[in-house]
Specification:
Elements lengths: L1 H75 L4 H4 L4 H4 L9 H8 L1 H7 L2 H31 L6 H5 L3 H25 L4 H18 L5 H25 L1
């Protein structure tokens, strides 16, 4: 009888132990899943922010390259100033570029970010990216903005001569490479696939497009050309009236 009671007691104890293990085991699995999901979401958000920056840096690279070629052609043939100066416009519009610092601020100021990611090397590469982005803004975008304000590049040939697009294109290329390398290392470090990144980006693009709207380059150029035509017509009328 005692043996049977002991057996039942042991079975009951075993069942209770298994139940406790399963309960806490499942809870641990759920917590681990949530932590991994939060980690991946944060990492993908950072990569998305990097890609937005890189897209602007590539646009700048292309615009500055075109402007550099146009400037050199005009310098060789000053009579082409009026016909080629429109090629400078995309580069001049870069002076209006700006970045969203929301992700950078969250990453840099929230201590939980580091514990969530749990990868020191990744954190270092991200920090390097944002540092390089600040250099890029200071040495390319801000310089261009200052030059646009000081020199009348689209108004006079003399104004165009006061600025060197080739030098700025060179600086932009350096920072574009540095930013690309930081991004590449981050993706490699966290073992992300470009497919995952693309899928996440599409979700963010849809969300962003519902919140924000902006005027594209084509619209800006069209407005500029219309304004230029009206100004030319107004100047001609003004000269005749004098």
């Amino acid at each position: 009888m005692k043996n049977q009671e002991s057996k039942q007691f042991l079975l009951s104890l075993l069942a209770t132990t298994i139940s406790i293990i399963l309960t806490f085991g499942v809870a641990a699995i759920i917590d681990n899943y949530k932590n991994n999901k939060a980690k991946k979401g944060l990492v993908l958000t950072v990569i998305y922010d990097m890609d937005q920056t890189l897209e602007k840096a590539r646009q700048a690279d292309s615009a500055l390259r075109i402007a550099s070629k146009a400037q050199l052609e005009i310098v060789k043939n000053p009579e082409l100033y009026d016909s080629l100066k429109s090629n400078l416009v995309p580069a001049l519009l870069l002076s209006g570029f700006d970045f969203s610092f929301i992700t950078e601020n969250i990453f840099s100021s929230n201590i939980e970010t580091f514990s969530t990611i749990g990868n020191v090397n990744f954190v270092n590469y991200v920090s390097s990216f944002y540092q390089n982005r600040n250099y890029f803004k200071a040495q390319v975008i801000d310089v261009l903005k200052e030059q646009v304000e000081e020199n009348k590049i689209l108004i006079s040939y003399e104004g165009l001569l006061n600025f060197n697009f080739s030098s700025l294109y060179f600086d932009n290329s350096i920072w574009l490479y540095a930013l690309s390398e930081d991004r590449k290392n981050c993706v490699k470090m966290m073992k992300l696939s470009e497919k995952e990144i693309q899928e996440f980006s599409q979700q963010r693009i849809v969300a962003d497009s519902n919140e924000n709207s902006h005027i594209g380059y084509e619209d800006l150029l069209q407005e500029m050309y219309q304004a230029e035509d009206l100004l030319k017509e107004a100047r001609a009328k003004y000269k005749k009236s004098k």
